[in-house]
Amino acid sequence: MPQTIPSTSHIAASTAGYLKADGVSQSYGDRRVLTDVSLTVAPGSRLGLIGENGVGKSTLLRILAGAEAPDSGVLARPERTGILWQEVRFDPSETLSALIENALADVRAIERTLELAAHQLAGDDPEAPARYERALAAAERAEIWSADARRDELLDGLGVGDIPLDRTLAEVSGGQRSRFALAALLLERPDALLLDEPTNHLDDAAAAFLERQLSSWRGPVVFASHDRAFLDAVATGLFDLDPSRSGTTVFGGGYSAYLAAKADERARWEKQFAAEQDELKALKFAVEVTARDISWSGKVRDNDKFAKSFKGGALDKQISRRIKNASGRLDDLRENQVRKPPAVLSFAGIPTGSHALGEETGLLVQVTDARIGDRLRVEAFRVEPQSRILITGHNGAGKSTLLTAMAGRLALDSGAISRRKGLRVGLLEQDVRFADPSASPRRIYEEQLGERRAEARPLTGLGLIAPRDVDREVGRLSIGQQRRLALALILAKPPHVFLLDEPTNHLSLSLATELEEALGGYPGAVVVASHDRWLRGNWSGERIEMSAGRLVS
Fold first, then answer.
1. Hey, how many other C-beta atoms are within 10 angstroms of the C-beta on 408?
2. Strand 192-196 with 221-224, pairing
3. What is the pLDDT of residues 105-159, one digit of tens each?
4. What Pfam families does the annotation carry (predicted)?
């Protein structure tokens, strides 16, 4: 359940309304999650936390809220700081009405305090005017006079206004519970907001409504999100918790500004790496070759022996000094050189020009009168060599069913799906499952690709699976890591038709963006099913919508 966390001993009240963390570190056992994290969020600022799963976004939010004490660090926050948990905390027997009224408890208390302070103005207490001013300021911040109207506006805006409030929380879906929890938190009007993946379970309209609410929020807001469209619309700055060359990094602006900054950083990184590699080669040549080849030469007459001794000794010292300097710089550069920038996601393996089996035109896949119960009823669907198709629609519309059937992993009740002879179709599933959970990523990769191809393009070289994880049991990897392995299998042997079901789910922001950019130049056909607003907003190919198992546009 959303709640305003009371101040604790390790968090000081922020009288200026700022949310601050200085030198925060946190470990669980021998696993360090946060290291010396510092941030300041002013009233009216909205800081988005980004980074891979497991880098500490949720941990940092809990620490900022006072729900968890850090190992070290200094914190300050407004007295009324509210947090939205990623997983709703609630009593299943509690009614929706009770949840909403609980959210208004602080507002009602502020209202009573204002009424009392106003009554005391008629007395002789010299402190009464100051108390009234403080109570009035608190009432204005909490917007007590519009609480009931805001309740209705929030429930309608988040798409749950038509659900009877006498239902219990156990009687509504998980997505509806999340929306009610969010509405309750916004209704509380805390001085600072902490949100963990707030757009989970929100459709486009509800997400846009939340964006408008936060854009006018007067206090500091810190939120963790994988929703790139939301980050771009709401954030005034981004805090990247992923390890980088300079540690955690703050970027001004939304996600578009972040991408531009990352591109500039990548260009500087590549330039510095190339320059250092050139310098390493030159220094190595100077140390290993120049010292051997350069020497005093030339015939010397007997009466020039003194000159030879003098000049030769000076030259030897000069050469020795230069070699010593070069050797020292070589050792320093070898020890402190920047690491090679990670490879950018790319696809290879399908001949360009003849994108599919020797022909540039014609059908690769044809779906005709396909029926699978009440899940799929598609009369006609075509995929050509250059197809770029985005399929949209609500959950249960039939998108995943269509892709799975096209990949040959789901049988039709009736109709047909024809594929060109020799066609290779690949599917990146939304829910990845490997047959043997005890197998390692390395073994799965080698078995699927064959030893020769796996050796020519090593799994670790794709940048999707960390070297420390290649020999772990795949069943012990996170959902995101398993999805990365599934993507690696496709990267190493790209199909003629690439089907992607919610491709950005469980992927980091940077990897999701790289994948989308790589798909633009994919040497084959691409069919994507996605809810991702950023992906949909930047899609330049064909668009098709599904509803109730049918293609509607």
1. 11
2. parallel
3. 888 899 899 999 998 988 888 889 999 999 999 898 878 888 889 999 999 999 9
4. ABC_tran
